[in-house]
Amino acid sequence: MIVNLISDTVTIPTPEMLDFMMHAKVGDDVFNADPTAIILQEKIAKLFGKEAALFFPSGTMTNQTAIKIHTQPGEQMICDKWAHVYNYEGGGAAFNSGISCCLLDGNRGMFNAEQVKAAINNPENIHLAKTTLVAVENTTNKGGGACWDLEELKKIKRVCQEHKLAYHLDGARLFNALVAKDETPKQYGELFDTISICLSKGLGAPIGSLLLGSEAHIKKAYRIRKLFGGAMRQVGYLAAAGIYALDHNIKRLSIDHIHAKNIGEALKKSAYISKVEPIETNIIIFNLDKSINENNFIQALTDKNILISSMGSGKLRMVTHLGVSFDMVEKTIQVIQNLKL
Ligand SMILES: *Cc1c(COP(=O)(O)O)cnc(C)c1O
To answer: pTM of the predicted model, to two decimals?
Structure first.
């Protein structure tokens, strides 16, 4: 039994999901003629109360498309210093859109409306890059699956409206936040101009991401997706996995959250661990005691068939997902309790 806690992207389709994919009706999506992609797009748009949505191969491409929709070269985006859009998309904001980033010093990947206000460049000052976009991430990845306070997101929305800034949500793991905080997709749909959602994380689809927005945004996104090389042909087989995931795999995210909390409790009691970040969803981030070598620790777990990842600067990460069963959690806890280094 191998327990893969490296990421929630490692899931493979269940037989039921695969069967549903195999029976999808497909067509050429570059001509907007794939019936299953259209069903998925209409389904998610309706769920969030948005006008339209578009299927993409990756979350990086949905985020990068949103940035390109909302900005012109030379402009500036405000985001957290830990944001995926800044750190983990290959420098794409600069490469694809020619923009710079103003990084806020947030807490676990989250900032507040005052910080946003203070970071907006005076549009009358020609020396400064024009601020045109604010991007937030929920849940935060590097912040350990932390969930935003909806009231703070509303305050930031007001700042965006006052200063005519676009407001994008990197919601790669938004459904984890919705389940953890008992919030609804519509509460987010009405706040943000655009939202990206990953189907290939906790929702358990093999591939796929969705961008949501107004008709006008999605019309632009349709062109940008082609420009980025992300327009695909008989994509309905993948879109079917997304439909299946939305129908079956949202509520069960709470199981992943319980599993993460239980593993976190075992880590807290371990003599080798100096700190475990608060666990709100399916991500566990912890630091080792100074006396423990990080590589030795990861190897000791690997030897017991438990796979985890390093996030650099002493932070280690475990992520639970639908491929992690109750028995696997029990095994992980036992290994942590009995580890000899
Ligand atoms: C995974 C992830 C993405 C998208 O990543 P892809 O691997 O390109 O699908 C975007 N934002 C966050 C916060 C993520 O965790």
So the answer is: 0.97
What does the DSSP assignment read for 109-171? TB--HHHHHHH---TT-TTSPPEEEEEEESS-TTTTS----HHHHHHHHHHHHHTT-EEEEEE
Tell me the CATH class for 3-8+252-338.
alpha beta
The Å distance, Cα 312 to ligand 1 centre, comes to 18
The fold for domain 13-248 equals Aspartate Aminotransferase; domain 2 (3.40.640)
Domain definitions of the chain by residue range:
3-8+252-338, 13-248
Ligand 1 centroid from CA 334, angstroms: 31
- Encode the chain (341 residues) as per-residue pLDDT tens digits: 999 999 999 999 999 999 999 999 999 999 999 999 999 999 999 999 999 999 999 999 999 999 999 999 999 999 999 999 999 999 999 999 999 999 999 999 999 999 999 999 999 999 999 999 999 999 999 999 999 999 999 999 999 999 999 999 999 999 999 999 999 999 999 999 999 999 999 999 999 999 999 999 999 999 999 999 999 999 999 999 999 999 999 999 999 999 999 999 999 999 999 999 999 999 999 999 998 999 999 999 999 999 999 988 788 999 999 999 999 999 999 999 999 88
Pocket of ligand 1 contains residue 59 by CB under 6 Å? yes
Distance (Å) from CA 59 to ligand 1 centroid: 5
